[in-house]
Fold:
Amino acid sequence: MNFDLPEELKVIREATRKFAEKELIPISQHMEETKVMPAEIIAKLKELGYFGIVTPVEYGGMGLSNVGHCVIQEELARANLAFCLLISGNNGIGSMGILYFGNEAQKQKYLPRMATGELLSCFALTEPNAGSDAAAIQMKAEKKGDQYILNGMKHFITRADISDVFTVIAVTDKAKRQKGGFSAFIVEKDAPGFKIGKLQDSMGSDILHQCEMIFEDCEVPAENLLGQEGDGWKAAMRVLEEGRLGQGARSCGMARRLIDLCVDHANTRVQFGKPIAANQAIQWMLADMAVELYAMQCMTYDAAWRLDQGDRTQARASKVKLFCTEAIGRIADRAVQIFGGMGYMREAPIESIYREARALRIYEGTSEIQRLIISRDVLNK
Amino acid sequence: MKIVVCLKQTPDTEATIKLTADKQGIEEQNIKWVMNPYDEYAVEQALRLKEKHGGETVVVCMGPDRVTEAMRTALAMGMDKGVHLKDDAFAHSDATGTAKALAAAIKPLSPDLILCGRQAIDWDMAQVPAILAELLDMPQVTVVAKMEMGADGKSAVCNRRIEGGEEVVEVKFPAVLTCDKGLNEPRYASLPGIMKAKKKEIKPLGLAESGLSANDVGKASSKVQILEYLPLPERPPGKVFKEQETPDMVKQVVKLLREEAKII
Ligand SMILES: Cc1cc2nc3c(=O)[nH]c(=O)nc-3n(C[C@H](O)[C@H](O)[C@H](O)COP(=O)(O)OP(=O)(O)OC[C@H]3O[C@@H](n4cnc5c(N)ncnc54)[C@H](O)[C@@H]3O)c2cc1C
Structure:
């Protein structure tokens, strides 16, 4: 058994870590204050290839494995989750539908330009009346001549305001619902009848926004249908499954940052004449954080490696998503405690991670939905 | 133009160094290894010269298997190929032994220019490039902070840092230059660069192929004998003044800064 990363991924980890330490971590706190990611940094991420991590080589990407994708997400999330969110459309939910269900012409048209970051993308499934119960979506798509006409609304869609291309799930056959009644479409931002609704302010950093998307007789060329009519549910489930491991890797990165910050703080903050790290109460919190990080990393990379071998069984991705996103919640909570009042203040980089971590238990399937998937798998044995 | 860069893999500047129990070395197990930071300037300089004047860039490195990670990083930044001096016989070479091994690998390449970092950040001796230049009978310019190629393409004007100023030196190729901070801003290895580097050649070169004998290198040849390594002394606790009048305390602090710390 060998748990070491292959050399190529070690080089990638080192290169990403170095870039993060020199360029990303130093601006992270400023980004939290201004809620803006500097354009030069986005340009650098493009130039260095971070928008095409998993896109196959024949479409201009790096074609990296799931393990490789996790390595990069962990390093970027360590600097700031927003960097992961920025690239996550093109490396995941925004491009996977095209990759797995698109025809050759669609792949050629979009994937190479997504891999370079020229086009940004996102994935739109959730609606006001369809969250965990995504099969309750109401957005309609009706075929008229060589077009589909889309009517309805999506909300909570990450990056929609800055994206050029959306993968949108809509109802094409009301009777069949998710059993062949949903279809997936590629919608471009300037499609007639489409507009962004409000930007939905959140308790998170809001460096990237969740948005409402409004479709009023929105015209989409029929050639933008992904796969066959009725493939929409399959496409959505596949896309979401791929993303779950990423939530594990991101949680690992955020946990590492918090632990580093806490160790520094515990060693330097003096109360009652000694560093607070001299108290067992603080030591035990740090020990618990270290144990959880270790478990998170083991699970994430084991599941990623198995997925790379083609093994998608045992609801592993759901287990990773559930455990890691709940563990980072506990870790962030302890980090606030170790920092005391400063952990609660905007001037230290703890509270923003605490707020951002809270969302991980909700999107791409809540903790409850992951437990549902896992328990179904356990009971079906 | 053919440019060779000599590269060393060193512990990361942030790594916590612990000595082995026998005090004969450092514990290598949990150390993060990186390309010697000064060597990054050498790699960057080689790449800029190639981009402007064409040619080939080769990275040469001596060390155990793990050093290929640093070599791959150099290839990912854009170097063309690598030569890896790899043999148990090379282990524990002193600066002369190391320079001999590097010279043996470099000579057949007949480079126009050899670039090194100004020193490796682990042993900080800055000897290898100087000995290498002697062995290859080339002129050397150390601690280069600025470099301008001559119009003939066969020489360069270099500014080197010296105490209190800079010295401007003209040097004819082939030559050995050691690179200092400020010479350039090293690029990051990009993901496409890393993928391309996977296919680039790293040629292993053992003792036999190098044409050297076991007496030339390694512990056997070493003129430096390491008796033992000592950890850095613990930092003495800071002095704290309190419960006196502020002007009095300031006077005492200034006195100590001047007389004991000798920094003002
Ligand atoms: C920051 C953020 C970014 C997002 N980005 C995107 C995006 O890019 N694209 C996109 O399509 N969507 C996105 N979403 C939407 C996200 O996927 C949904 O919010 C999520 O699936 C939950 O749906 P909901 O908010 O409607 O909550 P609800 O489904 O209303 O859930 C409310 C509560 O009920 C629980 N619950 C519901 N059903 C069950 C059940 N059967 N058993 C037990 N408990 C249950 C839930 O677990 C939760 O605790 C984003 C959300 C957030 C917060």
The longest strand of chain A covers residues 147-158. The domain at 7-116 of chain A is CATH 1.10.540.10 (Butyryl-Coa Dehydrogenase, subunit A; domain 1).
